[in-house]
What does this fold into?
Amino acid sequence: MDEGINSSTPAWLTEEFIEAILREDEKTQHLQVARADVQPAVAKGDNFGGLLHRVTAEIYYQNNGNNQEKSELRCIIVKSLPSDDWYREVLDQAGVFKREMRMYKVILPAMYKLLKEKLPGVTIPALTARTYTSSITNETLVLEDLRPLGYRMVDRRQQLDLEHCVVALRALAQFHALSVALNDRDPSLMDHFREGFYTPERRHILSPFLQPTLDTLASAVEKWPEYERFGDKIRQIAATSVDRIIDVVKPKNNSLCVLNHGDFWINNILFRYHPKNGKVLGAKFVDFQVSRYSSPALDLQYFIYTSAKEDVRDKSLRHLLQEYHASLTHTLQLLGCGKYAITFGELEQEMKERAFFGLITACTYLGAVLADPSEVVDLDSNFGEESRKNGGQSPMEKAYAGERFRKIFRKFLIHFENEGLL
It folds into this structure.
C-alpha cells in the first residue's frame, strides 16, 4: 500500500487495518485487500472534530486458494481523534467521540428500525451514511464514503442558497421528528445526549476559549470604520458569555425537545443532485460529536448563522422556518406523534429565546467557515499546549481579518444590535 499512503496518513491506518475492518463488516475471512489509496478526506480547515481520511481499497475474494478473477472497489471514510494532545483531551472530556459512536451504532439504527415499523412498505432514504461494524477500536469510526453515491459538499465559503437551505432543513426536521418518536418509545435513549459541551463542569475549558475569542473579535471589529462601538459591546457579552451559553442550551420543561445534530453547518451536510438539471435531490448528514437533547432552535440558529447565504438570511428567513416547521409537523404526524407538534408561533418564540446561541455561533464560528486557505483556522498549531504557553496568535485572528467575514459580519452586528443582543 506504500504507493497510496499520503504523508499525513496515521501510522496505524494500514492495509491490514483496512482489511480487518472490511472482513468484519462483510463477515468473511476470504476478503483480501490488494492495494489501498489513503488521502485526507477534506481540506485543511474544513473539519475541526477529528482526522478524516478517504480510503479507496481494491479488494478480491480468495476461496480455497483461488482468487476472484475481477477485483472490486470499496470506498470508506475513516474518522479518528485529532493528533494534538491538548485538543484530544478537550474532546475526550466532552465525550464527543463516544457520543458520536453511540449515535451511529445505537440511535440511528433505532431510528431507521422505528421508521420501518411505523411506515411499512414506504422507502425513505437514510439521512446519514452507513457505519461499518467494527470491534477493532473504540477511537475510530468507519463510514461509507458518500461521494461514489453522488453526494458532495458545497464550498463552505460560498454558503448555501435558498434551494440547498430548504432541502437541508426539511431533512433536519425529519431527523428531529424521528428523535421525538424514539424518545416517545424509550426516553432512556436520550439520557446519553444531555448537554456535554456547554456545562458548568467544563467552565474551566470553555472560559479560556470563549472569552479570549470574543476579545479577539472585539479587537478586530473596533478597527472597522463606523463599527468601532461594537468592540466594547462584544467585550461586554464576553464577560458573561459562558454563563449565558450554558443557560441557553438547557432544555426547557413543557417545550418541544429533539435530538439536535449539534454541529449542523455546511460541511456536515452532503447534497445529491439531478444529473441533468442540477436540482438538489436530497441531503445526508455527518459528524454527530456534539449532538444534544434540547430545543430544535439550537440547530436552526447554528445553521442559519454559519451556512445560509446573506440574501437567504435577509429575505427568506421566515420562509426557511416555515419549510422546517411544515416538514417537522408532517413527519410527526406520519410517525403517530402529532401530539408533540408545535405551532409556527411557538417555533418563532423558541428562536427568540435561543437567539443568544445564534449570536455566539456567529461570533466564534463564522470566521472559520468563511476563511480562505490563507486564513484557515489551524487547531493543532494554535490550540496546542506549546502555543498557549508561548502566547501564540489566536486561532481566529486571521479569520476575523478576512474580507468575506468582515462584509457579512457587519450586517450581523447591526442585526444583533437591533435585536437587543448587543
User: Anything to note?
Assistant: The beta strands are 31-40, 51-63, 66-67, 72-80, 140-144, 151-152, 258-260, 269-273, 280-285, 292-294. DSSP finds 14 helices and ten strands in the chain. The domain at 87-127+146-418 is CATH 3.90.1200 (Aminoglycoside 3'-phosphotransferase; Chain: A, domain 2). Residues 38 and 55 are 5 Å apart (CA to CA).
